[in-house]
Amino acid sequence: MPHFYNYKEKYFISTNFKVMYSTLRRQQYLKKVKLFFLMFSKKDKFIIVREPYDRMESFFRDRLRKRLTNDDEWLRSQKIFFKPLNVQKGSTTEKYEALANLSFEEFIKLLPVVFNKNRHLHPQNYIFKRILPKRILKLNNATDMEFLASNLKLNIEIKANSTDKMKTDIKWTNELIEIVNQVYHKDFMLYSFEKK
Q1: How far apart are CA 83 and CA 43, in angstroms?
Q2: What are phi and psi of 22, to 5 degrees?
Q3: Do 187 and 124 meet the contact criterion of CB atoms below 8 Å apart?
Q4: β-pairing, 3-6 with 30-33?
Q5: DSSP letters along the chain, please?
Q6: pLDDT tens-digit readout, 103-112
Q7: Spatial separation of the C-alpha atoms in residues 74 and 157, rounded to whole Å
Q8: pLDDT tens digits, one per residue of 110-167
Q9: According to a count of CB atoms within 10 Å of the terminal CB, is the N or C end of the chain lower?
């Protein structure tokens, strides 16, 4: 998973895909590092987490809408849906149409089958279980975003790969909420996210 070292301010910060990863990659003083360096360092460590419902909406908009093309160049986060959609041996057009026609509801219903097959969907606690952070920062929490900017000296105005303004048909039903609550139960518990 993505771990960075700020060589000017002397701290580590870790995140997950769909949790400010692209923004962190564009920071002037951050260098991507391996988990190994964090494990044996006494320097401060911070992690950024994202509320699971918001993370799933962002994944759907980015991976299954914005980055969906009909050119047989599939992202790993798209390929994981081929088998459950019965198109793994289909043509490029069949695969494209299956993904393009996949509704948000169908995506969430497939989540229990695919979440372990791609890092964009892994529960965040998988990634951070070996890190003892000084502070856990929540994306979309104003106080935590101010801490990132003021204390960690990160430019949070860099909006890379944002899907916030994409219009997609996303409707949460009680059934879909319950699926996300079950798949990401530990994330809700460990990071004190409020369940719908």
Answers
A1: 44
A2: -65, -35
A3: yes
A4: antiparallel
A5: --EEEETTTTEEEE--TTTTHHHHHT-TTEEEE-HHHHHT--S-EEEEE--HHHHHHHHHHIIIIIT--SSS---HHHHTTTTTTT-TTS-HHHHHHHHHT--HHHHHHHHHHHGGG-TTTS-HHHHHTT---SEEEETT-HHHHHHHHHTS---TT---S--TT--------HHHHHHHHHHTHHHHHHTTPPP-
A6: 999 999 999 9
A7: 30
A8: 999 999 999 999 999 987 888 889 999 999 899 999 999 999 999 998 876 666 666 6
A9: C
The answer to whether the pTM exceeds 0.85 is: yes
- 163, 187 in Cβ contact below 8 A? no
